Predict the 3D structure of the following.
Amino acid sequence: MSARKKTWITSAFSEFNLTPTTVDSEGAPAKRTRSAPSAATKTRSKQNGNSTLTLPTASVDLTADKDDDKEESEGCRQPPPTLRANWMDSFSPTSSEELAVHSKKIGELRDWLRHCEAVRRKAPAQMCLLTGPTGAGKTATLRVLAKEFGYQLQEWINPVDCEVVNALGDQRNGESYTGSHLEAFRSFLLRASRYKSLLDAQNKRLLLVEDFPNILLSDSEANFDELLEQYSESGKSPLVFIVADAKSRGLNISYKLFPEQVKAKHRIEHISFNSIAATIMQKSMKTFCAIMQQKENKALYKVPPSTVVDSIVVGAQGDIRNALINLHLSSMKGVPNMPTKELNVSVASKGRKRKTQSTLKSIGRDESITVMHALGRVMNPKFTENKRLQHSPEVLTEAFRTEPRNFVNFIHANYLPHFREIEDVVPAIHDLGLADCMLNEYREDALSLMGLNIAIRGSMLANSAPVSGWMPIRGPKRINWQPLATLAEQKLLGTRYAGTSKGIYATEYKSFVKCIAAKRPEEMPTEIELSIED
Amino acid sequence: MSLWVDKYRPRELTKLDFHKEQAENLRNLCKQSDFPHLMFYGPSGAGKKTRIMCLLREMYGAGVERLRSETMTFTTPSNRKVEVMTVSSNYHLEVNPSDAGMYDRTVVIDLIKQVAQTHQIEINGQREFKVIVISEGDELTKDAQHALRRTMEKYVATCRIIMSVNSTSRIIPAIRSRCLGIRVAAPSEAEMTAILQSTCKREGLVLPVELAKRVVDKSERNLRRALLMLEAAKVAKSPFTAQQEIPDLDWQVFLRETASQIISEQTPAKLEKIRDRLYELLTQGVPPNLIFRGLVEHLVNNCDMSIKAKTLELATEYEHRMQNGAKHIFHLEAFVAQFMSIYKKFTSELLMDEF
C-alpha cells in the first residue's frame, strides 16, 4: 500500500519522476502524471528498448504523428544517429517548422501561449481547448510549442485504480467511494500547477488534460464547471485540454463538457485543428522515406513503391499517426508489398490526366464517408456503362447503419430540389415514408438497416432525370414547440391553461384567444382578481 | 374576466344544458360508494371535460374546484427529463400525458404510482380513492396504454382513472374493457343555439338569431369553438349584427390556402413550399391527424369526381402509415406528392381530350 502511495505522490508532483522508474517497471499501474518529454519519455523509451517493441503507449503514438509532420517539412535534417528501438520516437518533431499542422493553427496556439506569458503574473490560470479529428497533430503541436516556450508539460492520466487515491487521503480506512477519481483530478489540477519539480530546471509548467476522468462524462453531479471555476481562481499555470472530435454528440466531449457558456465564462480559448491535408501528408511521407534511407536505417527499411505510399495517404484520410504506422509496416524489410485495391473514385491530379486512387486492401482505416458526401451519391447517382449503380446502396447503408434515422432525415430534407417531375417524387417519398415506419419498429434490429436501405435505394432510383447544379445541403428540420400563449393570453385562461393540451390549445383556443386578449388590455387587472377568486 | 367558455361552464350535474338523462345516470353512479374506471368519449367540444368536473364535484364537493397547476418532472429510462403540466386539487389530478410525446409511458407509470401510493388523509365522508383524469387518452402511444392497463389493476384500491378520449378506436381493447364507457355526443344545433342565446343574455347582449345560426354552422357542432368564436366576434364588433364577420380559426384558413396551392401547381418546387407550410402548422402545435384530415377534405372538395376515390384511397394508406411512423411530415408530404401526381395526370388528360 505504501509503495503505491508513493507512486501517486511522485507522479502528482512530478519531481521524483526519474527515481521511481524502477517502481514503474515493477508494475505499479497508477502513474498519473507524465512529465515533459525531455525527462520521462526518454527514460521510458530506454525501458522500451530494453524490453520489446510492444505497444509504445498512447503518448508515444502521439509523438509519432508529429514525427511525420516534422519530417515532411524538414526533409534532410535527420538527428538520430543511433538505431533506436522505438521507431516512432525517433521521428518526433522538435521544432514548429517540422510540424505537419497548418501554420495558421500553429500560429493560433503560439499566440495563446504568448498571451499566457504576457499575463503570467496577473492571471496565470489561462485555459485552452484543442479539438480536432484524431491524428491531426494536436498533442504534437502542443508539445513542440511548450518546449519552444520553455514549459514543462504535466499531463493527467486517469488512475487505474482509485483505491490508491483513497488510502492516501484523509478518508477513513481506505474504503473506496465514487468521488475519488474526481477528487484526484481536482487535486491534480490545483496542486500540480503549484509545485515545481526538484529535478527540473524549468520553472514554468503547463498542465495538459487529454484523458478526462470518466466521472465527468457520465455523472451529471460531477460539476466540471465548478472545477474550472476553482482552477481559474487558484491555478498557477496554463491549462490545456485536448479533445478528439467524435461523430456522435453523445460521445463528443467538447460538446458535453465545454458548452459555449462555459467557454465564454472561463475565457477558454478554443482552437480546432483540421485533419491533415493530403498534399502535406504526401510531402511528409516523402521526407519520411528519405529518413529511412539514411545509412543507419537502411539496414532495416526499404522504400515502399510509390503506389503503396499514395495508398497509405488516401487510406489514412488525414490521420497522420495512422499513415505513419502503415508506412512503417509497409517499409519493413522482408515484408512483401502490401496489396492495394483501386477505389472507384478518380481524382484530377494537378493538370495531368485523371488517375485512379487506390487504397490498401487489408490495412488502414475503412473509408469513412461524410454525410455530405453520401448525400451527393444518393442525390446524383452515377451509373456505370452497364447501367449499374456505381456506388452500391449497400455500401452507403453500411456506412450509416449506426445512425439510420439521421441519414433518412437528411435525405428527406434535401431530396426535393434534385427532382424535375412530380411523378418521380412519388416513389421516392413513398419509400422514405416506408423507411420511417420501419425505423420506428425498434423491436427488430434488422428492420432499421432495411429501412435505411429502402430509403437510399428509393431516392437513388426514383429520379429519372436529376437536376444538376449547386444545391446547398440543408439539415433536417426539428419541430420545436413554440411557446403557445403570451402572458396576457395565459392570464385570460387562468388555470385552464395548464389543463389544456398543446394540440387542443393550438387548434381550438389560440386564434380566438389571440383576438380576445389583444382587444382588451385595459381589463387585465380585473381578470387577475377574478381568477384568484376562482 | 375569464373566457365565456369557462365563466358559464356548468359546475354541477343538475345544471347541464344537454344530455340531461345521462347526467341523471351519472348522479346515480356517484351515490354508490364505489365506481369503476370511466372513459368519456365523444367529439371535441361536446362537454366531456365539463361532465368529468361536474362528476368530481358531485363526489367530493366544492373542494375539487380549488385547482392548482403544477409542473411535474419525470425522468425517463434514458435519463431524459420530461416536464408535464398538471392541474390538481386535493382529490384529483388532471394530466395530459400525450404532451410528453414518445415518453408518455414513463409519465403514465410514474404519475399513477405517485398518486396511487398515497391514501386520502381525510377519510370521513370522503371516498377512499383519488381520481386521475387523463385527457386526450387516445393520443397515448400503444406502449403507454399497455402500461396503463397494468397500473389500473394494481392500484384499483386507491385510485380511479377517468379518461377523456375523442375516439375509442385508438384505445386498446384491454383498456376499453376495463372502463365504463360514457358517450358524450355533440350537442344538436338547437341545443347549441339555446346555449349561445342564454350566454349572451347573461352577458347582457342581444344575439340576432341569424348570427347564432351562422356561428353554430361554422363551429361544426363544437360548443367550445362556438363560444370562443362568439366571444371573439363580440370583441371585434360589440353590438351584434346579423351579417357581421365571424373570426376564423387561423390554422384552418392556412390549411385551406395550402390546399388551393396544391391544386394550382404540381411541381417538386411547389411541393417544397407546401412542405414548409406543413412544417409551420406542425410547429404551431396543430396535431398531424387534423392537418391530414383538413387537407383531404379541402382537396376532395376541389377536385373532379373521377379522382376523388383514388385520393381517398391514398389518404387512408398514408394516414395509416403516419400512425405507425414517427415523422409525420414524411407521410403528409407523400400524400401531397401522390395527389399532385394524379391531379397532374388528370389535367393533362383533360387537355388531350379537348384537342
In short: Chain A touches chain B through 60 residues (CB under 8 Å). The CA atoms of residues 165 and 184 of chain A lie 7 Å apart. Chain A has a mean pLDDT of 70. The longest helix of chain A spans residues 57-74.
